[in-house]
Amino acid sequence: MFYPAYVDLAAAFFYPLGNTPAACLTQHLPPELPARVLALGCGDARNVLFTAYCEAARADARPIDITSCDLQRAVIARNILLFSLILDDRDGRNQHAVWSIYYHQFLDSASFELLQRHAKTLTETSSSLDEWHRGPHGSCLRVCDSATLAAVHEVWLSYVNADARPSRAEFERAKQAQEAIGGAGINVSITAARSAAPSAVDAVLDAPRLFKQYWRSGTTDGPGATAKTDVPNPMFSGQMDNLTLHYGTDPLLGFHLATAYLPLTHASPLNPNQVQHGLGLDPLVKTARLQFEAWCDAFRRRSRQFTLRFFVGEAMTFCHVLHQKLTAADDAAQWYRGPYMPDPLILDADDYRSGQAPTVFNVIDTSNLIDHFGSLNLLVATAPLLDGSQAATLVTESLVRRHEADQPPMDALLCGNASALSTLLGLFPVQYWTNTSLVSSTQESLLQSFQDGNATQLHSRLTWKNRIPAGSVQPSRLHYDETDLAQLLYQTYLTMFEGEDPSVLMAKRSARHVSNVSTPYYTRASFAAFLRFVKGRVEADWSKAATLLLDLIDKDNKLMLGQDYLQELRVQMHLFDVCSGLIPEFPLEQMARRCREASQLAWSSLPNIVNVTLKVPRSKLRMFHEVGKGQLGNPPLICHTYTATERSSFAAIHLAFGTEHFTGERNTQDFALKIQQDGRGWHGESPLWVSFLVPTVILLSNARTLSIKLALQPTPHAIGSFASKLDDTLGIFDVSLDNTEHVFITRCRPNISVAPHVLPPVKKQDNDGLTTQTNVRIQITANFLTGTARISNLTGRVILLSHDLKTKLSHGAAVDTVQISPCVIAVKIGTESSHPQLHFPVPILKVQSKVRIARKSSYIEVIVPIASPSMKHYFPNFIHPIFPERSGPITWNAPYLPVSNLPVIDTKASHKTPWLNIHLSSAWSHREIRIRDASLDSASPTGDHFETRIAFKDSLLTIFSHFGDRDASTTQTPFFTLSNPSAGGVHVLILASAIRLDLASQSVVLDAACIPLTLDIVRDIAPALQELHKHPLCQVKVDGAELSAWKAALPAMAERARTWAHGTGGKCAYNRGAKSIPLSFADGESVLCACGTGVFPDGYGDGWGLEASAAAALTRVAVRVAVAPVFSSGMVERQQEVPAFSGDKDSSGGGGAAGVAAAGVGGRGATTEAPPGGCAVCGRKERDGGGELLRCSRCKTVKYCSPECQRKDWKAHKVGCRAATQ
């Protein structure tokens, strides 16, 4: 009901395997925190298995409870079978068979027999929930409800009864379905390039070849395979649910394929070159199988750590039922399990009755459901299930590009201005507000370059938090003026239903926009659920705001169908407890007379909302079978109630195929309709049952003349495909209200035992909108540009409570403000030592603020504009936000890493392509590249210095390049300093150990020891520093602003690599009264807590080439860190484009990221201490081709081997060069 009901005949596909690389589900949680994960649209098992691999790197085994939900029962059945197979295969001897069973469309006889034996075991222990949970797998593999168990039991039974005779019928059917749809085709697939990042370009040639091979043979076995694989694998069959195997199914897409191409050290984890078995396999296949084996082994060893729960049904309904579990004592279900599923959703497992199963979570992963449901539907359903911890994270993922080139992506995602909508929702999209991602855009740019400007795919992941942590201060809800709030909600309404606006349709005629509005996400029920959600997260006179909103909607003339949906909107707003008094009622005497006219409503007592069910004959649906699947698409359906002069439309409808059964006496309130589902759906013979809720008054007002119609929603695609086959309303079937053969009016919806009722009152988030701090109360208000849905600024009001403060303010005490973080401003009142803090929901700009002082009324107001994440000099200390908590710091935008389990790049190997620098150089946005290039090319002083973020990224490029690049012009060294020449010189030492592949982010990470220098540390390691200076040392020059950015980021870098626990009871400096992290920005003071000091694996630093005593002294005072490149967010800024792919793996284009890499490998502000008299950049003793070194023509002192080295060093050298010549 939250999204339109579609005709799903054309694209009824079975999705057994995922199409994006595996993600670690616990990566956003501190290692000690027990994980409660909700995986919606879970798909295959890759994320759970990869999570087990990541967790296996940790010494302590925290409990991990994962609830997995998928609409397709065969997906859940496959996953439970796989996990149980892994658990039963205690010594891993059946690993090859397990791979084949899960990934191959055809099996050898031995694997097929193993599958059937195991499926038989599962069916024998799954006759009831109690039996399953007491069985051999029940302690680890739990089932949420009896309907789910019955559904997967039936699937397992189909495996047991599968035919072992060779057949390729279903395999060929999948190919034919794609040809009929006319899509991209089964012959070309390059999306595996996404899985091979950061070496995506290498997979562009190999992936399509292997994809074709898989769809020719049905296996990943190479040509040398000995076993005969001709038995169809029932695990890939969707026939029992009338599903066709998806044409893009590819076993390799869920793995991290870069290890097949990049040089790894001999002892590296997941090095496919060190595996003896698998000879004859393609390197990509070998890589995927090795990872699968490692993941399975980790899950097997850590199985006691895991509780896996499974649910079959629609994700958003599941979320709403979980949420109701928290607020309603009545277990009677009023939600359907999913589209075309007529059974109610009841979580009847004992785990939910006893409270053992979680109903709130600290991680919610939504896969790419945002592409299917829309962001507002998804956020409204999931956000209430996040627990109250600061670590709680909601993850959304998208694979579909829906925004136009000139439209901000975040605005398109949220159906309005990103700042206004994220503030309204009370959610904080981290990558957007930090303008930072750990994922490069290179692979997406590469894939788009193959689509001739018609890119439909764009992979992106966002993490959402409930709010910015405020320490011990309870943040307040945002205050809104009711008129402004109504206007914002109204504009959101218009955007949600812009497909009904003719002016928008005419203005945006791109193929992408036509496709978008032809598959709408929202119904009026969606909007009502959104309003209910907002109601609990804002502070305003809600009744007044709702009244103003309804008035705007009633008078709206922009949406051509807006007036038709007013009755549905009122019904849904009433049921979602948005406001009361929306459903009109007849006076009793009028109602009695009208009931006599409407025979189906001659009840003794009439509710104000009833259910109408329409029985649509199968003959009326034949046209959908007669239309070509390429033309059919997935048109949305709606119902109308209409007379000759009036019409009301309803899109929140439920569909089901099946046979009917009645209880109670017809034409009474006890009459009920039961539907037995026909699993054949559109391919069966049963009628289609369409049910929806209507105000009773509609039926009573026009009982004699009212008709009911099922129709297609008039989208551009539906009109183009069906206008010639249907009437001008796109009607499919209509009958009069008094047609008792096809129209059924009931108190309850089919198969539901309770009448539609108002949801429990919404639970307000946090407090009453006022936060009490010491002697003050705080109120935050959103202010809007007049008549718009854009926030102009925010007002923070400090209301003085104490008599002393009121007296001081009234007597003229000075008031000052200080911005202490992107979202917090402290207010200083006179000489008071305690400063009230204004915690704003989003980053703000104090430099453009205004202060109002009401000395008589005893309050202070600070009016601040919202900062734009794309603005110049945007908060460089807000790249990796980190917040102190009692249990330990909480990092945002810095996922925890199983560092020791990550593959290690062999930096000593010769590189055929500059993959590392191309990857690193995509860190800058298109805007940043222009600024960077202008600065690097400038030989004269400029008043517009580098943005600190650009400089920070440049320093990262310098460090990675000098450690990992064997370019002849770059001195390779593991030793780096962060040096601010104008403020004491060296402040931080970074001693690199290895470059590892960050598998989850498809990037690289520098595994390093970090020493933020203090006077005590310098004295302690003085002999080691002397030894260090005997070796090449790369000095990364930074200014004060960049040094602060590094100090802000280092704690998060340490957290990412953490294998140790923070001290408790005040033993850790972070929880010993620290108000913020880092501990200090001051020169010579501690930046990090001491808990992780000296904690390194044995042999760490052996490759540094230092004396053993020096290496030991350095690691004794160092902390292990994971230093990663950072990239601008594609949700904020335009990303770089890669050069057009030439088809030659060894080619490297000269534009885009490649051009930047070639031009700036040396980085900005870096010099390498080389043997005296050498080139200032690379240390060479003579020029290229021989001859004496060149000298700088201005200062005549610094030497270079080539003009290229001089250009690389110019940004760093020009300040000193100018000083030397003045």
Automatic annotation (TrEMBL):
The keyword Zinc applies. Residues 1175-1217 form the MYND-type domain. It comes from the Eukaryota. Gene3D superfamilies: 6.10.140.2220. One of its GO terms (molecular function) is DNA-binding transcription factor activity, RNA polymerase II-specific. The keyword Zinc applies. CDD domains: zf-HIT. Keywords: Metal-binding, Zinc, Zinc-finger. GO terms for cellular component: nucleus. Pfam families: DUF4470, zf-MYND. PANTHER family: DEFORMED EPIDERMAL AUTOREGULATORY FACTOR 1 HOMOLOG SUPPRESSIN (PTHR10237), MYND-TYPE DOMAIN-CONTAINING PROTEIN (PTHR10237:SF14). This is MYND-type domain-containing protein. It comes from Diplodia seriata.
